[in-house]
Amino acid sequence: MLAAWSDTSRMIVTSAVMFLAVAAAVLVGCNPLLIHIRRKERQYDQILRHSLLMDISPRMVTVLTGAMMLFLGLVGYVVTAGTLPGTLLAAGVGLILPGLFIRYLRRRRQRKIEAQLVGGVQMLASGVRAGLNLVQSMEMIARDAPVPLREEFAHLLSEYEYGVPLDEAMESAARRVDLPDVRLLFAALQTHRQRGGDLGETLDRIAASIREIQRLESRVQTLTAQGRATARWLGAMPGVVMLILYFIDAAGVITLFTDGLGKMILALVVVLNIIGFLWIRKIMAIDI
Hints:
By secondary structure, the chain is mainly alpha-helical. It is 88% helix and 0% strand.
């Protein structure tokens, strides 16, 4: 009976110590976690409300990230039969997916604006030659240009109507869009407002410059297409090779996932594969 009581006491003490340790870890890690969440929410706010002009609360993205981590973590727990690395890996995927999707939306919007920019500059030049001033020409773009270029100029003009100086509104738009061609356009317009000159001719030169830059960028994309395809194939090759080996020697492949040394080899393969993929992409990312 004394032995049973001693075992019970030991279990109670052990449980209490573990509870205190977990509570201390939560208290110590709570503040850095909150700081990280606030920093990510500021980044999401910058992208969602400023770059994408979407009225979505960053806190909603945080909640969605938590839900995604929980869901994928449970999926990983079930698929990997309750192993901790598989569960953490799946939860980690849930952590980065919302951010990747938001950045994808931002990049897609930037590509659309970049494709529409030359037409917008030509529309500005046509408005100036028709006798309109710069603001009136921008209003024409905000009314007749395709989305999302129309939305950006509409937002710029709304800031101007609320009392923001036009130069500051253009600087804000350049930061919001974050494209070199857009910064070139607004910088040229600001220079013209300070020094004067033929605005129509200035806009024609800007349109020609942007068109030439985009032509060179398209040429670079064409020349580096094979390298980027090679990076994608090299990234997928380990999985393809493992699938082929599974049909040849299923037991050996399964051993990689069950044996400790095999797991280390798989982790090393994944890390080296990611490094090689990012290295090739970095080499192919040529900035004009």
